[in-house]
Structure formats: structure tokens, C-alpha cells
Amino acid sequence: MKVSEFFDNKLLNKYNTSGPRYTSYPTALEFHDDFKHDDFIKAIEDSQNRELSLYVHIPFCHTLCYYCGCNKVITRHRDKADTYLEYLAKEISLQAPLFEEYTVKQLHWGGGTPSFLTHPQITKLVSLLKEKFNFSDDLEMSIEIDPREIEMDLAEHLYSLGFNRLSLGVQDLDLKVQQAINRVQSTEFIGNFIQHAKSVGFKSINIDLIYGLPHQTLENFTKTLVKAHEWDVDRISLFSYAHIPSRFAAQRKLRDEWLPNTQEKFALMKLAIETLCDFGYDFIGMDHFAKPNDELSVAQSDGTLHRNFQGYTTRGGCDLLGLGVSSISSIGNSFSQNIKDLKEYYQAITERQHAQIKGVSLTEDDILRGEVIQELMCNLYLDKQLISEKFNIDFDEYFAEDLPLLNTFIDDGLVENTANHIKVEQKARLLIRIICMSFDAYMKKHINQQRFSRVI
Questions:
Q1: DSSP characters over 101-155
Q2: Which residues contact 144 (CB under 8 A, 6 or more apart)?
Q3: CA 272 to CA 118: how far, in whole Å?
Q4: How many CB atoms lie within 10 A of CB 173?
Q5: For 38-94, what is each residue's pLDDT tens digit?
Q6: How far apart are the C-alpha atoms of 289 and 276, rounded to whole Å?
Q7: pTM value > 0.90
Q8: If I label 110, which of 68, 236, 375, 413 is the partner at 20 to 30 A Cα–Cα?
Q9: CB-based contact 270:7 (threshold 8 Å)
């Protein structure tokens, strides 16, 4: 279909409400402290999976980006990273024996800013992980990079350690926008680093972009999109800026009058999607773009795309172990999260031999609804018969109270519900979060709370 058909202003305005991004079901709002470390260990023992994805959280950033809602520690003192790595090493040594039977298929470092670490610190952490876990020969290793505080030789160093994917936080290339969000960076250096990383051997490079930032206009955001195309990056993540200053203190530095209004923000999103598709990228899920030969594009076309706490992925079938402060794990039929405060994280590792603070054991209903939401989020299509057979249910009977919630979308031509399948039309792709809320059993208690970001 034509990309322009994604944008029916009347319908998008009608449904532009807040909702979960569904990187998990149940969402993190349902995690509770009744979930103990013994429950985590039992989830490992009961899991039918023996493939593992590792996520390592590095919380440090040199400076504060005013738009950011991530868990981070702002400092220019690298010795703080030495202390953190000591405790992280303890956590790794404590957790790794629980996963002796697992093979690690994917390793991702996020933050914060993982590139805050020095070359020796990065080497030491990679060596420890490879020593403690069983890594696959075809390991996917990725890392998030802040291009403001790195040297060109970081690419060689990372590649020599086995990293094969890079993700650069770019967000926007306009100087006025950068100044407003406290993130001034060199467009020339970013381009040179991307080309250098390719020459070193990196086969996959992603950049993050954000629309809805202060002072963004169609003209200056077009320049950012064109430059991304010139860099010939393999993937682009396009995120909507969620302005929630009541939750994130730094966002109070961004004046409301600087921000695009609802119509202007919608136009920025429309511009980005149309431009990137015109450049030849495939539109993945609701916010990713990839070259047609990229494995994300292939997975979407053959119906095997997954979604987890790292977004859209081809490795969603793995159990996920999160390491470091605030990191989230998905093991078997459970989710769990580490402590968010750095000092409390250190204390927990020392006193309790783990940093887990909360989590949830999934019920049969959670597992079923999670799969329904996963299928719709990733593939915009659900085979009722397959779900019925897998879970030994009659789909329409089981979801008798939920299916009527789809009627408004059906009336607007956004969803098709037949005896055999549920199909989300392409023009409803941007509303998939709202459509999936129809199957969310926990949504009623959050319906009047601003706990989630708006769809657009």
C-alpha cells in the first residue's frame, strides 16, 4: 500500500491516546515485590528455553540530555565506573552459574551511555562475560554509543572484541534543537565515524531519531532525515518524544512553547515515515526502519518478528537476563527487574547476593494474552485457530468480553475480525498499541492515569 495511507488525520486524532509500548505483557507496572529471588531461580529451572540474550546496563552519561527518561547517572568522574564495574562483576559471577546450561545468542549493552567506559574497562567487562557464560559462535553483539564523547578508534576496539552491531544516539542534527535539549554534537564526526565503522567491518549500524523535540520544524528535520540516508545506515529507530515533566525533572527545562503542537508533531512523524520509506527503508512494526535485506525486514515479511524490552528483534525466542542497575529480565514465564538506585544496587549485591527488587510470575492468562499482543504488535495478524490449538481454548469464547472492544476499530475500517483471524489494516499500524489494549486485562486500573506515553 501507499505510505500516505498510514495517515488519516481524523482517525489518528481520534485514537491518539496514551498506551503501553508492550515490550512485555504484563507491563512493568504490574511487577511487585512479592516476586522473590527464589521465584526467579524456579523460573530458570522451569524454562523450556536454553538460549539466552544478555542485556548489560551501563548507567553513566557525561552530561544530561533534557528529553531523556532513562535511568542514568550524570558524572564526568570515570572512577565511578570502576566502582560500578566491580559490583557488576560480582553480579555476573553470582548469576552466571544459574545459566550453565544456556548458550548466549545475543549480547546488548545499553544505558545510560556504554561508550562512557574506557577501552580497558570495555575489554575487562567483555572478557568477564565470555569467561562466565557460554557464547554462541554466531553471537550478535551490539552496543549503544553517544557520538559526542568518543574517538574514531573506538570502532576498531569494539570490533576486535566481537561487537558486530552499533547503535548511535543521534536524535536530531539541527543546532538549535540540540542546544535546547543540551545535546550538541558534530554532524561531520558522526558521519565519519559511521563510515569508519563500516570500513572496520561492522555490518549493521543503527541510529536513533526523535520527533517532537523543541524547535523541530519540517525543514530542519528533513535535513536530519536526508543526512541519515546519506550515511547509508542499516536501521533507523524513530521515537516519539514523550513530554512528561511531572515524572522526569530534566524535562522541566524544556518550555512548552518550544515544543511542536499536536498537529506539528503529527506532521513531523508523517514526514519521517514518508521520507524514510521513499529512501527505500522498510517500515518495521510501529517505529523501526530497516533496509529490505536486513534480518528485521526478512523477519517481518515471514511473520517471525519478535518484540521484547529492547524493541523489535529477531532473537525474541531467547530468555533474557538483565545485568546491572535497573535492568529487566524475562526468564521462562516470569519478568523481573533490578534495583534502580546505584547505592542500593551495591548494597543488595553485597548483602543479598543479587539485585532483584520486583517481578511477576505469569499466569496462563498472562501467557495467552501476551502471545496475542505479541502477534498483533509484530505481524498485524493473528491466526485464531493456531492460538486456540496451542492453548486448548475456543478463541472467541475465551475473549468474549474483549472482542467487542475491537468494534470501534472495525467500524472505522482499521481491523478485520473473522472466525479464523484478526487482521490489523496497514493504515492502523500507528495505532497498534491502542488496538492491543483491547486484550490487556490490566488496563482498566490504569485507564485514567497518565502512566504511558501517547501513541503519536
A1: T-EEEEEEEEES-GGGS-HHHHHHHHHHHHHHS-EEEEEEEEEEE-TTS--TTHH
A2: 109, 110, 111, 113, 114, 115, 167, 168, 169
A3: 35
A4: 21
A5: 999 999 999 999 999 999 999 999 999 999 988 889 998 888 999 999 999 999 999
A6: 8
A7: yes
A8: 375
A9: yes
